[in-house]
């Protein structure tokens, strides 16, 4: 059976995990994780996050747009600025805590992964 076969349920299974894959993709960039951790402290404007992260305003805004599209953060206008906050802070803390527990159990396995580990991440940022 191939991945493209409709009748065997393989595509249906793959389709069923797309939302989860999209959710985890929102966590796939270290800067987005730092933004989420920073927002655990409370609401922040883009300019505050730019200052904290040392990234350009456009880069921070793109990361926030990704997180907003994934339902992780929400924004509200405050004057000419937008103020961002976590959409579901308790659930996010639970998920990040579970990720830390899993990382503790796997040790360096994730870091050493040739496709997604530290070397792959370094190559991504060199490009």
User: Hey, roughly how much beta strand do the residues contain?
Assistant: 5-15%
- Mean pLDDT value: 85
Order of helices and strands: HHHEHHEEHHH
Runs in which pLDDT lies below 50 for 5 or more consecutive residues are none
Shape: globular
Helical residue percent band: 55-70%
Q: What would you report as the Rg, rounded to the nearest angstrom?
A: 17 Å
Question: How large is the count of helical segments?
Answer: 8
Report the structural category: mainly alpha
Distance between the termini: 37 Å
Strand order of the largest sheet: 1-3-2
According to DSSP, the number of beta strands is: 3
Biggest β-sheet, characterized? 3 strands, antiparallel
Secondary-structure blueprint:
Blueprint: H1 10-16, H2 18-25, H3 30-39, E1 44-45, H4 46-53, H5 57-69, E2 73-78, E3 81-86, H6 89-106, H7 109-112, H8 118-126
Antiparallel strand pairs: 1-3, 2-3
Structure description:
With 127 residues, this protein is mainly alpha-helical. The chain has a domain at 88-127. It is 61% helix and 11% strand. It has helices at residues 10-16, 18-25, 30-39, 46-53, 57-69, 89-106, 109-112, 118-126, and strands spanning 44-45, 73-78, 81-86. A hairpin with a 2-residue loop joins β2 and β3. The termini are far apart. The mean pLDDT is 85.
């Amino acid at each position: 059976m191939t991945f493209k076969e409709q009748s065997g349920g393989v595509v249906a299974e793959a389709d069923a995990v797309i939302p989860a894959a999209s959710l985890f993709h929102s966590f796939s960039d270290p800067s987005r994780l730092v933004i989420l951790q920073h927002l655990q402290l409370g609401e922040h404007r883009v300019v505050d996050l730019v200052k904290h992260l040392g990234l350009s305003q456009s880069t921070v805004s793109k990361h926030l747009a990704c997180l907003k599209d994934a339902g992780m953060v929400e924004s509200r206008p405050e004057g000419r600025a937008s103020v961002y906050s976590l959409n579901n802070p308790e659930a996010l803390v639970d998920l990040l805590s579970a990720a830390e527990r899993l990382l503790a159990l796997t040790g360096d396995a994730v870091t050493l992964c040739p496709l997604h580990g530290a070397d792959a991440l370094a190559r991504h940022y060199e490009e």
